[in-house]
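Team,

Forwarding the record for the chain on the shared tracking sheet. I've put the sequence and predicted structure together so nobody has to dig through attachments.
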Amino acid sequence: MEYYSVIKTIHITTAIFSLLGFALRGWWMSTENPLLQNKLVRIFPHINDTLLLSAAIYLSVMSGLYPFAEDWLGAKVILLICYITAGLFALKRGKTKKIRLIAFAIALLCISMIFLLALYRSLLI
């Protein structure tokens, strides 16, 4: 069970890094900061999010909690897809700054809801 705790800590830590990194990149996008184009800034989120997803899958399998068997976990998966989609429009695909800012706000809302679901493990927050 100690290994489970280590993986859970990795999952939580990488989730926080994902949120903070996305918020920082969103700020840089809104201020048109050239750091957004830095190679490390573009690569690190993929590494972090791979660790995050790997830890999530491990935790799901080890705990026997599967998406859509648990309503709150299914909601997290749906919100994750929405977060990724909105994040793509916020940082890459949005054609105008207005679209990117709206997508950024939607992505932040999605990730906030993901964090709340993880904390309370209930759709009735």
